Amino acid sequence: MRRARISYCLIAVTLALAGCAQVQKPIDDYIVIGMDEDSTGPGASYSTIAGSTVRATVARINAEGGINGKQVRLVVENDESNPTNTPSIIRKLVDQGASAVILSTGSGSALAAKQISQSTRIVTIAPTALTDSVAGPPGNEFAYMVPNPLAQYADVYCGAFAEQGKKRLGVLADSSPAIAGILGTLEPELRQCIDVVDTSKAAVDTADLTASVSRLLGSDPDVVLVASVGGNFELLAQNTLHRLAPGLQRFSLASIGNQPQSWKLAEHGALDGLVYMGSLSDDNHRTEQTQAWLRTVKGANYSMTAYDAQAYDSVMLLKRAIELAGTHTDPELLNRAMQEIHEVPASFGQAPLTLSFTPDKHIAPDSVCGLVLIAFGADNTPTGPWPQYQPACTTRGSDR
């Protein structure tokens, strides 16, 4: 018994000392990049796509000699797109020696990561988050994001509504935290250009949307926006809208366009006429090059998504920053190097799109034309850029 007490006390002391240990500093012999990947939560449908491409890009960098002659090691944790889990996940990645963290998770979790990136002085970069505040002030000194932000989504949707003469918008949304955060930013912007007549929400795992869609249609919208993380909810929404209101113009977020495995699961013709917010254009040769490379990794028939392109660009932007800083072990130098990245050609968006960071601009796209409206055809596959409206490649809204 005395030995047991001594052993117990030794364990308790060890645990106490471990709890008081200082954060692990980046390792000099190799470069550790952390990734917070939601692989089991509501954002898994898109986070795992980006996460897979992050892994492939790191492997490619290592095969080509690494960064500054050092190999890159990727360490991965999962916050399940639960913002309450994110702070401990980021700290765990920092404790494993990460020099930077890729946030392949939902916007709510990426937003929760911002405070931790500030307190730990570690660069975070989000390849899939859409909420402007993820990389916007306050407290964004070490926080960055790659996609065009939601305020610019609103600009593009509003341009499309005006082009079509639409006046009354109905919104059908899932109740996930990620979509709640997105609508919190998007809806106020949309209300400036169109009358939002109803917002109908349902559980992300619902099996029937007939009542929700019927209630939404009762408000007499002339256009509908589906806001979801994708997966079954998005398919159910599109199938139900197609059945109950086949002539109604439908728009969606990026999710449906970036989940090609789900298209064949839609009812016949259910996606016909749907326009989603894409980020890939057939006029961008860099997109074509990235897809050609991905097909050597993911299979000859792989259809690249915007999540792939933005994940690839996220890793390459970190690589460039480490090269500019000349080190990965000094967080202040690395962060300053991030803010010196200027007009890097993007792998997504229209051909003229470039990516830049400055001390006052932590959202990468230099133009709204990182966004591309894409239309579906009768065979439930995208036909290409929507001919009725596209955003121009100007800097309008790029600093929003």
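^ that was protein a. below is b, sequence first then the tokens
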Amino acid sequence: MRTLLLLSVIFTWLCAGSARAGDDIDLANVPVAPGMDQPPPVGRAQIIGLDRLSSPHSWFGGWSGMAWDGDDLVLVSDLGHWARLRPVLAASGRPTAVDLVAHGPLGDVGTDKKWADAEEILRTDHGWAVAFERRHRVWIYPDRLDGPHVALSTPVAMADLSANGGIEAMTILADGRWLLIAEGDQDRPDSPAWVGRPGEWRPLRFRHHGLFRPTGAVTLPGGDVVVVERRFTMIGGPALRLVGIKASAIGEDETIGGEELALILAPLAVDNFESIAVRRRPDGRLVALILADDNFNPLQSTLLLTVLLPE
């Protein structure tokens, strides 16, 4: 996770009316961009809406991983905290309210950021899998996120990743294999990645697109994978890219890449988007919720983007 600064113009986008959602979480509509009544095309995907989550709690923020668990969204943060949120979804798939169900510190991580920097979360048959960077590892929490853990047998080469270049994207493929993608380094054309099962890993490379770096991944019901990529430059500000990867292409070659589904740039309201969770809405279409990590920075926001994925 790298600290990103949000362009100050975003404050003009955060002035829309808000709706109370539960006792501890506010959900406020955010205009996608100034002066636009409808979201513009962003590629093959379609923006449904953009919302800001806020809370008076000092622990709320820094959310880098997100996954569905039934009707709840479970989040993990840079500072070793977890939260369970229950959104109320409109037929479009966009949240209209969010309740805080439970929260607490992740088990066995303490308060040292070297150990507590959680970047991704995944629901598995054996419990919750959480990927950490700085002290690179994947831990399985069999029962509760605030309980004891079991260390996953990860690729040995993960230990060589840079402190801020750890596993940002993690998902389980339809055939049961795991896919791990590191953020990687700025001066390389690709990021380290691995596919396989605990103790049986095959190294891959995830191809970079310019300055974009992978920050999240999810496996779709049909088996394909969507990867979230983010970019930040002082001139262009933050940007978001969604990439679709065919299931059949993962593991065939040493380098993997995909098709661009969406590209979201300023002047659209965009922040440090890192995590993604997907579910099917009543009409059968797949909707992605994409969450921004605010880094506990007052110039950033916990934005929740709702995107309709292409058919």
